[in-house]
Amino acid sequence: MKLWQTLKIVWANITGNRMRTFLTMLGMIIGVASVIILISLMQGFANSTIDSYTNMGINNITISLKGRNGNVMLKEDDMYQYVKEHSSTLKGVSPNVTASGNLTKKTSKIENGTLTGIDENYIQIMNKVMQSGHTITYSDISIRNKVCIIGSYINNTLFKGAAKVGDTVRFNGEEFTICGILAQSSDSSEWSEDNCFYVPYTTAMRLAGTANVTNYTFFAKSTDVVSTETKEIQRFLFKTFHDSKLYNVSNMIDILTEIQSQMGILTSVIAGIAGISLLVAGIGIMNIMLVSVSERTREIGIRKSLGAKHKDIMRQFVLEAAATSTIGGILGILLGTLCAMKAGELIKINAFPSFNTVMLSFGISAGIGILFGYLPARKAAKMNPIDALRSE
Amino acid sequence: MDKETLIELVDICKIYHIGDTEVAANNGINLKINHGEMVAIVGKSGSGKSTIMNIIGALDIPTSGQYFLDGNDVSKLKGDALAEIRNRMIGFIFQQYNLLPKQTVLDNVALPLMYARVGEKERKTRCMEALEKVGLADKYKNLPTQLSGGQQQRASIARALVGKPSLILADEPTGALDSKTSREVLDLLKKLHQEGNTIVLITHDNSIAVEAERIIKISDGVVVFDGEAKEYKNEVMANTENRMG
Fold first, then answer.
1. Is A3's pLDDT higher than 60?
2. Residue from the list A1, A5, A302 with its beta carbon closest to the beta carbon of B100
């Protein structure tokens, strides 16, 4: 019998027994949907974790210079020059000077606040959004101006959220004039990036009592280039110092790699657990196919007596199982995608399933149909036509 | 073997194993049926006539002996090769009609042609021809359940005819019908015989068997009578008289 005619018979059988077909499919629908939901949420979660690490500086390469006898040999301009020469991979570099102390505004106080020295490009490189005012300028840096940019945590704590450009705040007794206020980027808590107090790095150096910048942060354009660029910077520093003990270069890429591999393992484990439901669905299909074969023993006998060969009967039942599970699989993909997107919205991650996830689920559902339909189909095809014809 | 012979059974034995005991259903059957004959195989239940029907119908193979169908040795074939023989050479008519209840009359009649991979256009033409021959051309769209018993049996006769088989094998074709429709079905079979078809009729009913021109009686797995229907009638009468006398 030709394939097209077999498909017509299969379709007639599937639609002729709607309730049973639907219940059999339900196992497949739930199984595939749960695989899709879990994998999509895991992938969405992994991506958002990586994103937040990126915000924390996964694309950053930090260097620290010890120098020979306190002579660090390289100045800020050398670093800017280096970035200019590597503009295809680097976004910029910022001197890294910090100091800690108390922030006060009249009677309000933040103990153990951190002051960070930045250059004129830092705010733009870090994609920070100004709520009002302007960033620190080149002239602020050259004259060591006592201006500052505050984040929303300091704004909320010291100014009750009403800070204006021109207000003043004291750091260890030194008065700074606010030149810019950052918009909230996280949740304004003490441990978030909203707790920041930026001043010109030259001003910070004076407060910290150092004459030279010893720490820099390079910003890579993408995570992919971090490792190679780290090696480039090491080579550049070795040319100057001729001794790798006099400097240190580090990045967070190893942490990212670790996170990615752990997320991968977790995703596989969860997908495996969800996969068990697919196995159960497959067994359900096999069960109903066995029932169907027994019920249709006489039909099989008639077909065989009229000349149906082994493969004709085989194909009819395997295709019936495969069609049931594939249709169930497609419905499961639709349901899973919908649920994953809704759940993603709820916990604020992008959980749209990837193309690979969808194709994998489709393939597995079709495969399960063929695998679990095989045994019942073989049972049907091996029936003795005389016994089959005699059955009621 | 001469050209006229369609069926030749040589020393056919069929032994069934029931537990440890062997039961011989057929015990050395020899017979020949020619092209164009209408033969009835009669026998009581348990006589071995069903077994011989299964072998003639290529549904089963003998334990020993040879079966030639149109010159081909069928007795050693298996599985798909037997299916091929059934499909090309044999048209079955069953007591219970054996139509697929969820398919239309046309689709039922088309089944043997589908398994023979005949194209759709030719298939439809041949099915309609067969349905016209049995007088059901107007019912081709109906489901079998919408037909009377007699009509269903005629549909199954159309299905048996459609593949132009060498042999039409009818197993108790009137067993489920009342006497009036039985008559119609028998007349139809006789008409098909007159048109040149070879028909083998399996029955336990002597009054049906005598409709054939030749009768083979099976008892205890062997042929006990093989001759013209007239002779058979006489013998049956004689037997009855003996018993009554």
1. yes
2. A302
User: What's the pLDDT at B3?
Assistant: 55
The residues pairing with A95 across neighbouring beta strands, listed in sequence order, are A216
Closest CA to B209 of B47, B54, B38, B94: B38
Antiparallel, parallel or unpaired: β B38-42 and B198-203: parallel
- Chain B: residue whose CA lies nearest to A312: B115
Task: Note the pTM of the prediction, 2 decimals.
Answer: 0.71
Q: pLDDT tens across B108-136, in order?
A: 999 999 998 888 899 999 999 989 988 88
- Hey, what domains does chain B have and what are their CATH numbers? 5-99+166-244 (3.40.50.300)
| Contact between B83 and A298 using a beta-carbon 8 Å cutoff | no
Q: Which of A301, A303, A386 sits opposite B60 (nearest CB)?
A: A386
Residues of chain B with pLDDT under 50: 1
Which residue, among B56, B59, B89, would best test binding to A if mutated, counting the most A CBs under 10 Å from its CB? B59
By C-alpha distance, which of A80, A95, A83, A100 is closest to A141? A95
Query: Chain B: nearest CA to A294, how far in angstroms?
Result: 15
The reply to whether residue A306 touches residue B86, judged by beta carbons under 8 angstroms, is yes
Distance from CA of A24 to the nearest CA of B (A): 21
Per CB-CB distance under 8 Å, the chain B contacts of A385 are: 59
pLDDT (mean) for A129-140? 91
pLDDT at residue B1 in the model: 45
Are B115 and A386 in contact (CB < 8 Å)?
Answer: no
The nearest CA of chain B is from the CA of A321 a distance in Å of: 19
Q: Do B83 and A303 touch (CB under 8 A)?
A: no
If we measure between CA atoms, which residue out of B46, B102, B44, B34 comes closest to residue B71? B34
Rounded CA separation A338/A323 (Å): 23
Residues whose CB falls within 8 Å of the CB of residue A284, separated by 6 or more in sequence, listed in order: A24, A27, A28
Which residue from B99, B43, B12, B60 is spatially nearest to B224, judged by alpha carbons?
B43
Q: Tell me, what's the ipTM?
A: 0.91
In tens, the pLDDT along B84-98 reads: 999 999 999 998 889
Contact between A306 and B159 using a beta-carbon 8 Å cutoff: yes
> Mean of the per-residue pLDDT values for chain A?
88
Q: Where are the alpha helices (DSSP H) in B3-146?
A: 49-56, 79-89, 105-115, 120-133
